[in-house]
């Protein structure tokens, strides 16, 4: 085994470092959708933080407020009459309980007995292999570790090698912050069995009671088992839960875990599954396989998704250590870093969202805190749906499916909330939810802010995911059996939830624009709810427009379709304010936070398609003005949303400038291995997006934004989707190529460019749909055949 520097290629698929991770934001993530790990790369003490996607506090329970409906008419009257302060107080009386929190499993610790200092240290995350490598030299001996989370085998693997036979000595232990017991399973295995909290308050809320509660007869159980396979030497496992490896040539550690989770509507303590069963089954299967089989199957599975789409931008400074590369980035000196950011977003989606798993939430599947930021939940007013913006366009359709299954479950609890809170048909979801699919407005029965708790469009917005899946795949069975029924029921709620305003337009009252506020005209205080936010109307328009088309396409529900058409005609239209901006609320109020992070009123432009530059130029200009007034600064996910917006505005240079701002190295303030930052936004040394702290939607959002800069397909003309090639190519990317992008209507596209001009494009028609192909001012209309490959040409 040679010195690390002589055997490692630092290509643009890799994040690489010269020192171990000092904190979470420097550790490197691996995941198989269900099991996640953050690898620190320590020398004498390696720490690998572990997660399993069903580990949540709490149990299923009725979180609805059964008195809420008694306050609805009072809140509605107050907003219509301009009594905004009273409306806030009425809305607080409509809140339910806070939801529960995602929980860590704990950590795997490896302790080594090196007597000399390490030299030639190097660690990397290879995105193309989904493997974290750590290597260094002690004396003349080179030590090498590889960590990966295998989807085929459903285990986490740690492989340890040394260049000198018999020189591998270490102890391995499992730990957890939760009540647990640790035991020896056999001579090579240890197990940790634990209990999760029955209740956890959000990290931002002080109820006056203990924020974390454990009860023996309540809460989820979990099991983790660690097994050691070795070549040479001696291996023993003790009753104290320590695996000792002495004088080995190599070792492979296999970690398997599971929980008692048995569905969102079943108690994990009384109706749960035995977590030992699956944990032991996965472990047993993996132990029967060779090291080479384990890693080869893992890489094959990962690359079957990862290599579907590749972005190349030149030049690329891949020979520069990743933190230094981020720190020195400008739009022109390292376009390759943008390609790495694109690949990293796709990597994270593959690692955190696979068929049959829970969908990715605020931190994907990686979390180390019992009270994680914002409960590490599914925040429905932007974050959870942003996680899936790149799924279809970057050719990861299978990774989209967990959120689609999630929506089906959410609709079940959402029907109860719609009935109890509002006396409405259909289903509703609000600001936050958890693994128990809570759908009521959170706030602990009066302690939350209505500007976020009262927003009732989490279900309607997530119907966009249903439509996106169909519009890219044209899966007719999915449309008929899954998407249409869910969208129809969400529309039923809208029909009951919207009411006429004094001018006869249909609006939501009380309504909020997520998390944003205005100055109350009556007393100068902060206003949170109004009579008809722009976002509510835009989301309803999108939903009913998709339903109207689907109803006609499927040949069903004619009477309901006509009801929806009438409803859509009565929706409050967009209005433009005195500054040329799109109005956010029912009136032009003075803004409390003019630079607010949310862009809720612009949702009809992105991710929606109601407003386009070609079809609505005046409204498009109002969108542009709104973005200019908001400013570029913001949280990581907010900047990512703005990248998408400016790409839709076909301003590639502005989008590239925003990516550069997002790639600013976040300045950390280390607190017990967690990390806050001195500034909002930016990128951590491990390329995670900074909110702060980590919120993974920023990574997914910017990947989607990069895609929108290179290809757009949201516009339809005469039944054909328009594939717009290089609609927002910035000057900073004069040459490059991308393969495997997907377009609505069922198309897959490869394209390349040089000197800022399109040089080659291939479009495969998956289903034989008609298409409009656009480059600059040239539009080609073409009928296609199933599986046909199109090679359009454009003038020089």
TrEMBL record:
Biological processes annotated in GO: carbohydrate metabolic process
UniProt source species: Rubellicoccus peritrichatus
Alphabetical UniProt keywords: Hydrolase
Pfam families registered for this protein in UniProt: Glyco_hyd_65N_2 (PF14498), Glyco_hydro_95_C (PF21307), Glyco_hydro_95_cat (PF22124)
Occurrences of domain Glycosyl hydrolase family 95 N-terminal (ranges): 15-262
InterPro entries, alphabetized: 6-hairpin_glycosidase_sf, 6hp_glycosidase-like_sf, AFCA-like_C, Alpha-L-fucosidase, GH95_cat, GH95_N_dom
Domain Alpha fucosidase A-like C-terminal: 712-784
Name this protein carries in UniProt: Glycoside hydrolase family 95 protein
Keyword Transcription in record: no
GO molecular function: alpha-L-fucosidase activity
Keyword Hydrolase found: yes
Coiled-coil ranges (or none): none
Residues of the Glycosyl hydrolase family 95 catalytic domain: 292-710
UniProt cross-references to Gene3D superfamilies, sorted A to Z: 1.50.10.10, putative glycoside hydrolase family protein from bacillus halodurans (2.70.98.50)
Taxonomic superkingdom: Bacteria
């Amino acid at each position: 085994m040679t010195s690390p520097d002589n055997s490692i290629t630092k290509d643009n698929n890799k994040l690489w470092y010269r020192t171990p991770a000092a904190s979470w934001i420097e550790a490197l993530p691996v995941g198989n959708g269900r099991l996640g790990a953050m690898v620190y790369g320590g020398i004498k003490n390696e720490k690998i933080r572990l997660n399993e996607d069903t580990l949540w506090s709490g149990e299923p329970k009725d979180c609805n407020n059964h008195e809420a409906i008694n306050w609805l008419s009072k809140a509605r009257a107050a907003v219509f009459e301009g009594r905004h302060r009273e409306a806030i107080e009425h809305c607080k009386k409509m809140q339910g309980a806070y939801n529960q929190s995602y929980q860590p499993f704990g950590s795997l610790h490896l302790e080594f007995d090196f007597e000399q200092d390490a030299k030639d240290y190097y660690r990397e995350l290879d995105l193309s292999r989904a493997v974290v490598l750590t290597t260094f030299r002690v004396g003349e001996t080179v030590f090498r570790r590889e960590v990966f989370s295998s989807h085929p085998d459903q285990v986490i693997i740690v492989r340890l090698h040394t260049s000198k036979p018999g020189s591998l000595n270490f102890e391995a232990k499992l730990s957890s912050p939760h009540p647990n017991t640790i035991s020896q399973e056999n001579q090579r295995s240890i197990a940790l069995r634990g209990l999760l909290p029955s209740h956890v308050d959000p990290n931002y809320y002080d109820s006056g009671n203990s924020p974390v509660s454990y009860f023996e007869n309540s809460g989820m159980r979990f099991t983790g088992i660690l097994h050691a396979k070795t070549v040479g030497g001696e291996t023993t496992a003790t009753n104290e839960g320590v695996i000792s490896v002495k004088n080995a040539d190599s070792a492979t550690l296999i970690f398997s875990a599971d929980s008692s989770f048995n569905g969102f509507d079943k108690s994990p303590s009384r109706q749960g599954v035995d977590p030992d069963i699956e944990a032991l089954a996965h472990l047993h299967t993996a132990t029967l396989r060779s090291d080479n089989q384990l890693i080869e199957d893992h890489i094959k599975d990962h690359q079957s998704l990862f290599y579907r789409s590749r972005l190349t931008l030149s030049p690329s400074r891949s020979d520069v250590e990743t933190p230094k590369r981020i720190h020195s980035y400008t739009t022109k000196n390292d376009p390759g870093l943008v390609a790495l950011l694109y690949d990293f977003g796709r990597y994270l989606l593959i690692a955190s969202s696979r068929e049959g798993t829970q969908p990715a939430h605020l931190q994907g599947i990686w979390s180390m805190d019992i009270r994680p930021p914002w409960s590490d939940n599914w925040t429905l007013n932007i974050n959870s749906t942003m996680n899936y913006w790149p799924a279809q366009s970057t050719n990861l359709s299978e990774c989209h499916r967990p959120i689609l299954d999630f929506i089906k479950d959410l609709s079940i609890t959402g029907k109860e909330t719609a009935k109890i809170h509002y006396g409405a048909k259909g289903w509703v979801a609000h600001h936050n939810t958890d693994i128990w699919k809570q759908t009521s407005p959170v706030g602990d029965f009066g302690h939350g802010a209505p500007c976020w708790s009262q927003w009732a469009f989490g279900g309607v917005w997530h119907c966009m995911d249903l439509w996106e899946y169909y519009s890219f795949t044209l899966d007719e069975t999915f449309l008929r059996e899954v998407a249409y029924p869910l969208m129809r029921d969400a529309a039923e709620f809208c029909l009951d939830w919207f009411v006429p305003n004094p001018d006869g337009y249909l609006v939501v009252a009380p309504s909020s624009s997520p998390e944003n506020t205005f100055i109350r005209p009556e007393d100068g205080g902060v206003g949170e709810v109004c009579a008809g936010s722009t976002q509510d109307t835009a989301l309803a328009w999108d939903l009913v427009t998709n339903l109207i088309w689907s109803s006609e396409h499927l040949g069903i529900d004619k009477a309901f379709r006509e009801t929806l058409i009438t409803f859509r005609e009565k929706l409050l239209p967009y209005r433009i304010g005195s500054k040329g901006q799109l109005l956010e609320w029912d009136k032009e109020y003075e803004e409390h936070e003019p630079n607010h992070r949310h862009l809720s009123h612009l949702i009809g432009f992105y991710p929606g398609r109601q407003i386009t530059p070609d079809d609505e130029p005046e409204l498009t200009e109002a969108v542009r003005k709104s973005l200019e007034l908001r400013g570029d600064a913001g949280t990581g996910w907010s900047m990512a949303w703005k990248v998408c917006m400016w790409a839709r505005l076909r301003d590639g240079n502005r989008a590239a400038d925003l990516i550069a701002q997002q790639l600013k190295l976040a300045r950390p303030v280390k607190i017990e291995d967690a990390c806050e930052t001195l500034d909002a936004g930016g990128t951590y040394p491990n390329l995670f997006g900074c909110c702060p702290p980590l919120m993974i939607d920023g990574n997914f959002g910017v990947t989607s934004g990069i895609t929108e800069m290179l290809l757009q397909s949201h516009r339809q003309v005469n039944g054909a989707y328009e594939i717009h090639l290089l609609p927002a190519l910035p000057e900073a990317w004069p040459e490059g190529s991308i393969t495997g992008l997907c377009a609505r209507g069922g198309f897959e596209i490869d394209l390349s460019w040089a000197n800022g001009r399109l040089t080659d494009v291939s479009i495969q028609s998956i289903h034989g749909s008609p298409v409009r192909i656009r480059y600059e001012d040239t539009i080609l209309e073409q009928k296609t055949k199933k599986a046909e490959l199109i090679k359009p040409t454009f003038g020089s």
